[in-house]
Amino acid sequence: MFMQRRKTRAVRARDVVIGGGAPVSVQSMTKTHTSDVAATLRQIQELAGLGCEIIRCAVPNRAAVKAFGKVAPASPLPVIADIHFDPTLALEALKAGADGVRVNPCTMSDERKLCEVYKLAGRMGAKVRIGINSGSVRERRGLEVVDSSNSPNIAEAMVSAALRQCEIAEDNGCTSIVLSLKSSDIRETVEAYRSAASACDYPFHLGITAAGLPEESIVKSSIGIGSLLLDGIGDTVRVSMTGPPHDEVSAAYDILAALGMRERSGPEIVSCPTCGRCEIDLKGIVEKVNTCLGREAAGKKVAIMGCVVNGPGEAADADFGIAGGRDFGFLFKKGKKVRKVPAEQLVEALVAEVNSVDLLCDEIQKSK
Questions:
Q1: Do 224 and 278 have their domain in common?
Q2: Where are the alpha helices (DSSP H) in 175-307?
Q3: Which of 73, 68, 69, 75 is nearest to 46 (CA)?
Q4: Do residue 138 and residue 182 come from a single domain?
Q5: pTM as predicted
């Protein structure tokens, strides 16, 4: 059961609202060199087409800032400049048209310049994400945040560092603040966010940092991000992956859809894991159905079960389903059998029922 969503202040990045009860937004980060303006804008366009709502670009040097000034005004998405080490780059990015900046204060030694960033962002009404990572807290530099060498609890150190920076930001006129408290350790991340949630009303950017290749990242991110969202914590998410940003966006939507926080672009297909009772090529059937279902199936729950005995009952909550046997199977709706169907016609019958058409898709035709 979902807990009530945590009440937070609303922060705006162009036309996207983060927190304040707004839907959880999906973010990613370009993986091009920002200095390559054409490639960066091309990737942003592609991600926007997939449903990405906020994009972040690395700004590691002056050349990147100069290019960022061309990327930001041409981007269809709000663009956040990602800054480490040098707060001067954040100042220049804001002046170049950034919708917001992400700063990690634990990597910045010039507190005076960082305060200038907060002041300028406050005057501009730009978003500032104060992003604290476990690694930067472990090896903090410069600012008087919690010294992790005196605290065995890294999650507590991250929270203390973040909340101290929020105070500094607010003292300098910056109130459009989003927090992130990321670690590659799931437990550490969840502990930090839960602790901070009880201490402030800033909206949170969720993610597991350095989560690895897509296969591992999806597992880690689903557990970490999903646990927090079920707690009612979280206002915007990025699924960090060593791979294309397009996969990050798709995975974020899958997580949100699985939690009922976003509508699915296609059907939800449930299928049994198979056992000794299964006498059909269930995996092949699932793949065919998934390929053949059209837009009419978006948001519908479709079950594909390998046992005519238990299948309909086990998937009683599905809108449509089939339960197959060696020679025949059953088409069912909401657990009720509709009709008996020859085994070789199961896919055709299910797709026609779900799509409300009598035509077969090309994939079915090819498989015959």
A1: no
A2: 186-197, 214-230, 245-258, 282-292
A3: 75
A4: yes
A5: 0.88
pLDDT number for residue 39 = 98
Predicted confidence at residue 5, as pLDDT, reads: 94
In a domain, 171, yes or no: yes
Distances (CA, A) of 183 to 190, 204, 224, 363: 9, 14, 10, 44
Determine the Cα–Cα distance for residues 191 and 98; give it in Å rounded to an integer: 31
Indicate the residue among 258, 278, 308 that finishes a domain: 258
Backbone angles phi, psi at 240, to 5 degrees: -75, 130
Q: Whole-angstrom Cα distance, residue 333 to residue 324?
A: 14
- Beta carbons of 115 and 91 less than 8 angstroms apart: no
Supply 151's token pair.
Answer: 């605290």
Please name the residue that has the structure tokens 């597991």: 208
Cα–Cα distance, 218 to 259 (Å, whole number): 15
Q: How many domains does the chain have?
A: 2
Beta bridge partners of 195: none
pLDDT, tens digit (0-9, with 9 covering 90-100), for 156-213:
999 999 999 999 999 999 999 999 999 999 999 999 999 999 999 999 999 999 999 9
What six digits make up the tokens of 275? Answer: 């056992």
39 and 120 in a single domain? The answer is: yes
Segments forming the whole domain that contains residue 211: 11-258
Low-confidence ranges of the chain (pLDDT < 70): 1-3, 139-152, 357-368
Residue type, 12: R
Instruction: Provide the pLDDT for residue 169.
Output: 98
Q: How many CB atoms lie within 10 A of CB 358?
A: 7
